[in-house]
Every structure is written in structure tokens, then in C-alpha cells.
Amino acid sequence: MNFDKLVEAMIKEAQERGEFDNLPGRGKPIDLTAYFDTPEDIRMAHAMLKNAGMTSREVDLLKEIAELKQVQTAVQDVNRKKELGREIEKKQIEFSLMMERQNRQRRQK
Question: At 91, which helix (H) or strand (E)?
Fold first, then answer.
């Protein structure tokens, strides 16, 4: 049995056992906009860092923003929602500035 068929068989068995039934975002399309908006060389660097168990500040910021948005959605207190909104906005600005700085450096080369 070749490698591809072996992998397909393992995936099919896992599906039959229901191991993919409770994954986050199940049944929803994956939004890859941010991935493809990131330059290819940066994506490669991030992948290498991730494989080494390390992440860049940009990746950490995106994770923090996503987590804050989840918390904001779950919170009932209006004041806390506003506070979280301000925190999200600050992190988004920081991320945007970092990306703009990288884009300028890349254009100067």
C-alpha cells in the first residue's frame, strides 16, 4: 500500500470513529484571507518558527485578538465589552503597524 492510500485509510477510519465531529469551526468555510495577505517569505518564516515551537509577535497578536473577540462575545457586561473592544483595537493597531513596517522594509530592498 502506498503512502497516500495509507493516509487516506487512516483519515477515513478516524472519520468513522467520529474524531473530527467536534472540531472548532466544523461546517464553516476557513477564512484564509489573512494567510494570503501575508507575504510568502513571512508565511514561510512563520511556518518554520511554528515547527520549532516558537511564534513571532505578529502570530501571538493574532491569537490574542481572536481570544479577546471570543471573550467579548461571551461577556454580558456592557462596560466589560467596551473595555475588551478597546483592547482588541489596540492590538489590531499594533499588528497593522508591524505589518506596515515589514511591507516598507520589503519595498526598500
Answer: helix 78-108
| Cα–Cα distance, 6 to 12 (Å, whole number) | 10
In a domain, 77, yes or no: yes
Give domain status of residue 36, yes or no: no
Rounded-to-5 percentages of helix, strand, coil across the chain = 75, 0, 25
Per-residue confidence band for 33, with pLDDT thresholds at 50, 70 and 90: confident
pTM of the model: 0.54
What does the DSSP 8-state code read for residue 25? T
Query: Could you tell me if residue 98 is inside a domain?
Result: yes
* Residue 92, domain member (yes or no): yes
